[in-house]
Input
Amino acid sequence: MTVFDQIIDPANRANPYPLYAELRRTPVTRQDDGTWVVSTYQEIVDLLHDPRVSSDRRNNPQLAGERDAVVPAFIGLDPPEHDRLREIATRPFGPPHTPGRIDALRSSLLETTTRLIDGMHGQDVVDVVDQLAYPLPVSVICRLLGVPVADEPRFHRLADAIIESNDPYTGTLVERRRRTNALSAELRAYLDGLLDARRDAPGDDLLSAFLTDGEPDQRMSRDELLATAQLLLIAGHETTVNIITNGMFTLLRHPDVLDRLRREPDLSIGLVEELLRYEPPVQFVQSRVALADLDVAGTTIPAGSPITLVLAAGDRDPNRFPEPDRFDPDRTDNQHLGFGGGVHYCYGAALARLEAQVALTELARRLVDPRLVEDPPPYRPSPQLRGPRHLLVAVDGILPA
Output
């Protein structure tokens, strides 16, 4: 069993970081299936910015002969197709076309966070995942996209299944791709109905904007729109759940920092950046393919080879970060890989940052003497989107808002 095989083994989900340190001893390693794993910071950054590295899984020779049942989202495309679709998706979401949308969410984020924490009154033990880290970003992404919150159980089931279908521990790439395609088709059938409703009665939401903004020849096709909606619906809450949950878990393990955040709410800005480095919500990215022979740390990755970039290992690289295993909210020069990099830098990074800052600050301020019930907590199956399934915290009360 290779080191990377051990990393994806569920038995090591609670603490893969010693394995990441072992992986970095050989910055580039070849797996039995022909995939090359890259684990050191500078090499990952270089490949994230290298146009000779494709994000389009249709270039992966392991999938030769396989046809996707659905059109890829822009995260799975290369320029210029990627750039065109991302630009259209960005117009109603953020700068330069809609610069105030994220900042305008701050008050509603605080209101929702306050309501969720208020719901914890009278409990001796709260579950940070079920009672805040999951419902907060779900509420936000539903509001942004125009998805009825009442439909949340339906897309939650599909989103979880799609994420678990990508778990490399659950079968070959072809087997995982077929499962993902089937689940994606089901989710897109649901989203197709929502698009029809928004077309007939557009509102102030992203789906309506995608359908109506700009000239017809400047909009996405129906298939492209469905792919984008699925991407935003899943990525818009799954990664943020991990940021908030991993963040609170880390704070409870560092009570001095938790107490400081309670007294200094402005600490949340640097603290969230350090959390993104120290416990990144996305541990590694797959589906990269070399379009040419690549020289990486003295090793040649042949053209046509699949590549996995282990972001979490790069974020603990001692050649880039002093004392990388120390959690330091005052860390400077913190150019972490928590949101990836290059043309595929996380589309929703600004929103995820704001959600985590608000949620963690309010948890620190309002929970009275919070303590971990279980350390480590139970983890979700995915080694890629790594985070606790539940985070039980004993409290002596909830302070008023």
